[in-house]
Design a protein that fits this description.
This protein is α/β, with parallel strands linked by helices. Helix content is 47%, strand content 11%. It has 17 helices and 9 strands. Strands 1, 2, 3, 4, 5, 6, 7, 8 and 9 form a 9-stranded parallel sheet that branches. Strand 5, helix 12 (259-271) and strand 6 (281-285) form a beta-alpha-beta unit. Helix 4 (53-62) packs antiparallel against helix 9, helix 10 (205-220) packs across helix 11 (230-241) and helix 12 (259-271) runs parallel beside helix 13 (292-304). The protein is globular and about 65 Å long.
């Protein structure tokens, strides 16, 4: 198909020349950060070694982490196939007819949960999944302070090991963002209108974000992170184009809520892709306001631009019950409609329990709990309540899997734990 083109070719050439110029400030600043950690190939090699499960286990052993025995237990359960198989799960949902049904794998939905704040929750979830014959997620999102988890008995390494043992992807949220105190618009209720400017990453924060990413990549093997600001989106794409194997997903906090905004993101991904067409952008968590019609149009745009197998559509099925959306909020029907229309590479994100469960809790899930220090949570006696909130997200995730199964659709759970 040929097209006349809406873009001015001279404008595109000038943009490309600017980004290709090693003396341009954008490129120079990121290149200088890369040099702190070595060449891109050296960075990638260090990250790969740091990510390997045996190396993570060895490091946990060296610091006498109490989490090591939990990981050993997880590996034992995996070896003895203690987790429900996909055929058993389907039979539990459908009964005898499950054996004669064909499930469409081309539109398999990734079962996603957020946020896995503390490693012990993963083990609690796994024990419940074994006992109740439930599924473990195929994708985990974390929003815990990075420095805190780094110094909490190796929590950051334990989660990295557990998710890889489980055959799931995981995403970390870096500390370099406006909520670190750098954005003067953000505070308590007295600065409420300041939030309309966005969480943001003011001034030099995109470059600091790159620096923080490279630290956790080379030290702990973190590869995929959350991205909340257009500046660090561009920085992440440039970092990838310069040779560092970063992956990131765009957070719901970026407010990506219409096709015109989506085109900007897709255009950047195409323009800063590598020669093989690959991109740093792994997924877009669209705004909670996005309806099914927009999801379908987004999927068509993604296909037209050749990004269908590269960029996942990530949609909230449930949200935290307090402090983020008008309740009741449950978008399971949107997901089912999208799958019925044959949309591939989509994930169902569960960030809260189903509203009918949440409303009964003494402490419903609250997005503001993500920003509480562990010491403060423990002092308030809320750690057990927050774990209960997490388990209700797990329950909602399994309900989504059940609804997909009833319609003959497939899903991606933890591939290392759930056999065929």
């Amino acid at each position: 198909m040929s097209c006349g083109g809406i873009f001015c070719e001279e404008a595109l050439r000038s943009l490309n020349c600017y980004l290709a110029d090693p003396n341009s400030k954008l490129v120079r600043d990121i290149s200088n950060v890369i040099k702190k950690y070595g060449s891109p190939s050296e960075i990638n090699e260090r990250a790969c070694e740091a990510r390997k499960v045996p190396n993570l286990l060895q490091r946990l052993s060296r610091i006498n982490s109490p989490y090591l025995k939990d990981l050993e237990w997880l590996m034992e359960q995996k070896d003895r196939r203690a987790f429900v198989s996909l055929s058993e799960f389907r039979a539990k949902v459908l009964g005898e007819k499950a054996s004669s049904m064909q499930f469409d794998e081309s539109t398999a939905v990734t079962l996603e949960i957020s946020a896995l704040q503390y490693f012990p929750w993963f083990i609690s979830e796994a024990k419940r999944a074994i006992e109740k014959r439930e599924l473990m997620p195929g994708r985990y999102i974390r929003v815990r302070n990075m420095k805190e988890q780094e110094h909490d008995n190796g929590d950051i390494m334990a989660v990295a090991a557990a998710t890889q043992i489980a055959g799931a992807s995981w995403v970390e949220t870096l500390d370099t963002k406006g909520t670190d105190g750098s954005n003067i618009h953000l505070g308590g209720p007295q600065t409420l209108t300041g939030y309309f400017t966005g969480v943001g990453q003011p001034n030099d924060h995109p470059v600091q974000w790159v620096d923080e990413y490279l630290y956790y990549a080379t030290n702990y093997g973190v590869r995929e992170v959350l991205n909340v600001n257009p500046g660090s989106v561009l920085a992440g794409m440039m970092l990838y184009r310069l040779g560092v194997d970063i992956k990131f997903k765009i957070s719901v906090f970026m407010g990506t809520d219409n096709l015109y905004y989506l085109f900007i993101i897709f255009a950047l991904a195409k323009m800063l892709a590598r020669e093989d067409g690959s991109t740093a952008l792994s997924g877009i968590n669209v705004s909670n306001s996005v309806n099914a019609k927009t999801l379908l149009a987004m999927a068509q745009m993604r296909r037209d631009l050749g990004l269908e197998d590269k960029v996942r559509i990530e949609h909230h099925i449930t949200e935290a019950y307090k402090s983020i959306v008008i309740q009741p909020y449950c978008r399971r029907d949107d997901l089912l409609l999208a799958v019925e229309h044959g949309i591939p590479n989509i994930s169902a994100k569960h960030e809260g329990g189903d509203p009918e469960d949440e409303v009964k809790l003494d402490h419903p899930s609250d997005i503001l709990d993500y920003f509480r220090a562990k010491a403060e949570v423990e002092e308030a006696g809320d750690l057990e309540k927050l774990e209960q909130n997490y388990i209700y997200k797990h329950i909602a995730l399994n309900r989504t899997a059940e609804e997909l199964t009833k319609r003959g659709f497939s899903f991606v759970a933890a591939t290392g734990l759930h056999s065929r």
